[in-house]
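Structure ticket #2291
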Amino acid sequence: MTSNVINIIIPYKWEGTWVFDDERVGLQKEPFVAGADVMIDHLVQDIPNAANGFRLFFSAYEFPRYTVCIEWRREDGSGNIYYSPEYDLEGWLCPALLRYFDKPPEKIYVKAEGK
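Resolution: structure written out below.
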């Protein structure tokens, strides 16, 4: 687990799927699937060339100018389901979530911006 309060990753599209790399925690081409990908589509709709990479800030703590807050709903398989009231969508976050948090947070605050 990292010790940052606000984490930053750079998701991008690879083979039509949102993925990210993070050497700090040993992840490469880690995919967003099962609804998390659709949340990202909504989150980046106003970011030009987001498919080529964008900055995604996320934290278990509210921070200035976050855009979306996703709420923990339940465990599902080896991951966790989160709900976005802003988009009225659920998305699955895989066990890689635990590379950033000790346990799945009740809420994750998110902001996306261009590189």
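Closing remark: The chain has one helix and nine strands.
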